[in-house]
Amino acid sequence: VQLVESGGGLVQAGGSLRLSCAPSGSSFSINAMGWYRQAPGKQRELVASITSGGTTNYAVSLKGRFTISGDNAKNTVSLQMNSLKPEDTGVYYCFLDILVSALTNTYSRAWGQGTQVTVSS
Questions:
Q1: What is the widest separation between alpha-carbon atoms in the chain?
Q2: Residue 119, strand partner residues
Q3: Which residues fall within 8 angstroms of residue 16, CB to CB, at 6 or more apart?
Q4: Exposed/middle/buried for 56, CB within 10 Å: 0-12, 13-18, 19+?
Q5: 37: phi > 0 → left, psi -120 to 50 → alpha, else beta; which?
Q6: If you average pLDDT over every residue of the chain, what do you get?
Q7: Closest C-alpha to 65, from 84, 49, 51
Q8: pLDDT at 51 over 90
Q9: pLDDT category, 21, cuts 50, 70, 90?
Q10: What local confidence, expressed as pLDDT, does residue 102 receive?
Q11: How far apart are CA 116 and CA 17, in angstroms?
């Protein structure tokens, strides 16, 4: 499964960006989807996730500035990022947890290739 991300770029501090992610090919049954990010020299960290039932989870430091949304039918996930700060700079990766076996309730995580977000001060 190939996930295609869009919406990254360069923005000034205080600005906004909207990231989107969609799979190429067929639609899938999804358990959850979301975004991670990785800043230079740091480990990848969870930004936000949303389950198929609509339950959201955010990194504590980001809640209130970022909003995640998902479309189960289209398997798309978006991340609205407001009031961006230089420390939000990094590569943002989307993921989808795709059902591979309904019998065993097993999911497999697919990743996007990453999109660069750079926030200048």
A1: 51
A2: 11
A3: 80, 81, 82, 83, 84
A4: middle
A5: beta
A6: 94
A7: 84
A8: yes
A9: very high
A10: 87
A11: 11
Q: Are 19 and 3 in contact (CB under 8 A)?
A: no
The neighbour count for residue 77, using CB atoms within 10 Å, is 29
| Burial label, 84 (beta-carbon count in 10 A; 0-12, 13-18, 19+) | buried
| Residue 40: φ, ψ to 5° | -55, 125
Beta carbons of 120 and 13 less than 8 angstroms apart: yes
Tell me whether residue 18 is exposed, middle or buried, using C-beta atoms within 10 angstroms of its C-beta: 0 to 12, 13 to 18, 19 or more.
Answer: middle
How far, CA to CA in Å, does 45 sit from each of 34, 42, 72, 117?
A: 11, 9, 23, 15
Neighbour count for residue 9 (Cβ, 10 Å): 13
Residue 108 one-letter amino acid: S
- 63-98 confidence digits (pLDDT tens): 789 999 999 899 999 999 999 999 999 999 999 999
CB 68 within 8 A of CB 34: yes
